[in-house]
Amino acid sequence: MSGGPKILVVIGTRPEAIKLFPVVHLLRASPHAETEVCVTAQHREMLDQVLAFADIVPEHDLDLMQSGQSLESLSARILLEVSAVLRKARPDRVIVQGDTTTAMASALAAFYHRIPVSHVEAGLRSGDLLSPWPEEANRKIIGQIADQHFAPTPRAAKALGLEGISRGRIFTTGNTVVDALLAARRKIATDPRWGNRKAAFATMTGSRRTILTTCHRRENFGQGVESVADALTEIAARDDVHILVPVHPNPNVSDIFRGRLHGHPRISLLPPLDYVDFVSALDHADLVLTDSGGVQEEAPALGKPVLVLRDNTERPEAVEAGTALLVGTDRPMIVEQTNRLLDDETHYNAMATAHNPFGDGFASERILGALLNDRRVSNREYSWAGVHWTPNGSADSSPRPQGDRRRYQRGGDVVDHGWLDEYQGARP
Ligand code: UD1
Ligand code: UDP
């Protein structure tokens, strides 16, 4: 039992679990906070995969997922059930991540109970309320409710400032997805239980060029998903490629992919992969076709060109850096741009430059600093991609500070966050 604030971390889906487990580990290791985890289980198997990898046993499991769930019924059930947890647990603060129904409805529940909300991955905006749908609206709603906004990039921090949120409430932290990715790579390298499956993917694809594809966005359901599936068939007509497709279990996606792609000799339809396995697949792939938010952030970090199966993105940093290209769901466009990457070595090499505009692996540490009101950590400057950023988002070319970044002192105590130590070796 700690004397610090009681913090409830709410998690619903796979990407929330991936991007919050590094924060949960640090919170749980801190003597200055009492932490409970509530999973709505908006996702079930895909969430459980990450919880198992991250060794997180939630204090509250609402087990809400229903097959083919509608947005309105899911939202209503989360609002009611998370409210019941808030009444019982009586936290001082609630943390939500991203832009899912869980994040939005849990923030609303906290607001109705007058409990302050911290938003991890705040400030992403596509500028189009209908794309991604309903996520763009979810993020804006959370932005209005939260009193602490953890922006992953200076651009996201700026977007929040332009919406009138005061600077003192915005912390530019980097994206915790990089912290998670480094943890996964460390596991792959060191833990035999999660041994490197790259070899298994290599056996699957042989010497062919490997394309890794994921697709699940609601605004792409129907014609968009069909068009992506048809593009994959056309690309797989080449006998020098093999396409790996971990299929999202949403029936709106899986029915179309199974119906159109099943049995193709150069397309492997796979179940959702464990996070570490997905990272191995990403490592093995030559290029990535995806409409996923998280994958758009991870692939550039591993130097994999990304074709984004969307018309716009709230993560333009990778596009600006030249490692991602928006191709939408138009079949000819997907095929043309994929063939160009496969056939034009200069173009491929230009996009495959390892570059990571999304974080330096210390985002969770900065978030902890802000949560515990430790300015030495939350204001820690950071640099990546050759640019040195100050926490308020301004760029600076002075050299990055040196020192032991794994530990910090608060109130005279050394806070030792085991997981960070464990994957320190994998840091850039
Ligand atoms: C949700 C989020 C989306 C996020 C995505 C990550 C919303 C509105 N959408 O979309 O922002 O990018 O998660 O993947 O919050 N299913 C299973 N098992 C699982 C997970 C899902 O069977 O472990 C099936 C169920 O039939 C479920 C359906 O997928 O009803 C849809 O799940 P849901 O969370 O509503 O939407 P996603 O498309 O996964
Ligand atoms: N991912 C995974 N297994 C898979 C596919 C993806 O673990 O089979 C991971 C991926 O590494 C990324 C996250 O899931 O971190 C992205 O989740 P998703 O695409 O479902 O959601 P989004 O990021 O679009 O919200």
Describe the protein's architecture and organization:
It is a single chain. The protein is an alpha/beta fold. 44% of the residues lie in helices and 17% in strands. It contains 18 helices and 18 strands. It is globular, with a radius of gyration of 21 Å. Residues 378-428 have low confidence and may be disordered. Bound molecules: uridine-diphosphate-N-acetylglucosamine and uridine-5'-diphosphate (UDP). The site of uridine-diphosphate-N-acetylglucosamine has 24 residues, from helix 1, helix 2 and helix 3.
How can the largest sheet be summarized? 7 strands, parallel
The dominant shape is: globular
> What proportion of the residues form beta strands (DSSP E)?
15-25%
Number of strands: 18
- Gyration radius, in Å: 21 Å
**Helix-residue proportion:** 40-55%
Poorly predicted regions: 378-428
Strand order of the largest sheet: 3-2-1-4-5-6-7
Ends: how far apart? 35 Å
Keywords:
18 strands; binds uridine-diphosphate-N-acetylglucosamine; alpha/beta; 17% strand; 18 helices; 428 residues; binds uridine-5'-diphosphate; 6-stranded parallel beta sheet
